[in-house]
Amino acid sequence: MNNVRYGYVNGLDKGTRDEAATSLRAFGVDHIIIETKLLPPKKDSELSKLISAVSKGDEIIVENMEHMGCSTFDLVKIMNALETKRCAFVSLKEQMNTKTSQGKAMLQMLRTISKIEQKQLSKRISWGIRTSEKKGTKLGRPRISKEWLSLAIQMYDSGHFNIREIVAISKVSQGTIYKEVNRLKFLKIDEQE
Q1: 50-79 pLDDT per residue, tens
Q2: Concatenated DSSP letters for 115-155?
Q3: b or e along 36-51 (b: 16 or more beta carbons within 10 Å of the residue's beta carbon)?
Q4: What is the reported pTM?
Q5: Would you call 26 helix, strand, or coil by DSSP?
Q6: What does the alpha-carbon distance between residue 17 and residue 9 come to, in Å, rounded to a whole number?
Q7: What is the DSSP string of 44-55?
Q8: What whole-number distance in Å separates Cα of residue 92 and Cα of residue 96?
């Protein structure tokens, strides 16, 4: 079984994509995969399909690491998936090749940086929440008053109003109204049993 060298390109404009594809062809890739959508859903992206398709000994080659993810966390997640499949990763610009000891060391450094970034983000979020609470800001979804919810249910039960009218008058969302209607139905069923 022959190992395959896949080139992966992801860029905003056609010129950038063409330039990257030219570099990859010169490097000697077997197939070039081009991501044409800016932010495709993860499961529908060409990269996800490529990671699913590769096997042991294959290589994914990019011109530049920034083609692989929006953050260090994304990049490390992709690298871990490739490592699990025993597929090598090569970045031409950063001169990284995970088949070499230098490339493995760079990957370990990226993992460490990713962990530091995650911890820093967590601290900033916690700090922001504490600061907001000290200022008296209520966090989370605003609570719906029982009176407004009761009014919405009464209007719904009357059959004289459609759901849009109920939402407009009561300021209770359609989803909340239906959730409460279903909850009340289940309560009635439980009481009858």
Answers
A1: 888 899 999 999 998 887 777 888 889 889
A2: HHHHHHHHHHHHHHHHHHHHTTPPPSSPPPPHHHHHHHHHH
A3: eeeeeeeeebbbeebb
A4: 0.64
A5: helix
A6: 6
A7: GSHHHHHHHH--
A8: 7
Q: Measure Cα distances from 32 to 41, 59, 97 in Å.
A: 20, 12, 18
Question: Which residues 6+ apart lie within 8 Å of 79 measured at CB?
Answer: 89, 98, 107, 110
Distance CA 182, CA 55 (A): 49
- Provide the pairing of β-strand 96-97 with 88-91: antiparallel
- The radius of gyration computed from the CA coordinates of the chain, to the nearest angstrom, equals 26
Phi and psi torsions of 103, nearest 5°: -65, -40
